[in-house]
Fold this protein.
Amino acid sequence: MMKRLYTLPDFKGSSVIFPARLIAFFVLVSLVSCVTPKKLAYFQGESTLADSVLAKPYVTTIQVGDLLSVQVNSLNPEATTFFNPYAPITASDRTGTYGYQQTTPLPANAGYLVAADGTIVLPMVGPVLVAGKTNALAADMIQEKLKIYLKEPTVSIRNLNFRITVLGEVSRPSLYNITNEQITLPEALGLAGDLTIFGRRNSVLVIRQENGKRTYNKLDLTKRSVLQSPYYYLHPNDVVYVEPGQSRAASADRTYQIIPMALSALSFIAIIVTR
């Protein structure tokens, strides 16, 4: 296969030949030449010695507006079905190509919606206050109430609308459903295909709504101390935004500069060829 060549006349009348791939290579080098390895490395420490950083795990609590899957089991399967009006939601119902990405909306009868007063209404049991409690604690409360109707009941509660949004300079920006109800910031970025070469690793914004207020918090992924941040573990409905670096703006400027130059060069070549 013949290489595409750009031939331009020099000042002495001879020809200077530029392979198209070589031109593209020099353009790419000029765009990323200002990016150093230190700006790209995650979790940099003070030394090469092994050390440890304690990251406090985050345990989700049930909030108003959460959609809960409440699955009941007991020694009497026939009686148990009465307390399971909603079909169980499996991982395959919620995930897509990358394991967490929701591809289709959840069905209307997916589960129990936590009302404004913090309760869900179960068959026979009636309203149960679950807001502010962990899934395990809420399950224990419901289990105690079901002992009146079932023999040795067990209850499992899952949050069906634990989701996060990842935007900005990542490979796959999207809205992601989290099946295990616990995810860290690096895991979220991994779901989104990691940061692009243009993303600022020292300025990752986490937007969170707490107690009716929205907070904006910037994290530096190049430092190991980020593991101790309260925003290292993401909460439901968090938005992660990766800011573009200067190289992104520079690449856009160079693109607008190179295109007119390339068009002018091609026009000049066309004139020479026709003559």
Notes: The helical segments are 20-32, 37-40, 77-80, 91-94, 135-146, 185-191, 246-274. The CA atoms of residues 179 and 215 lie 25 Å apart.
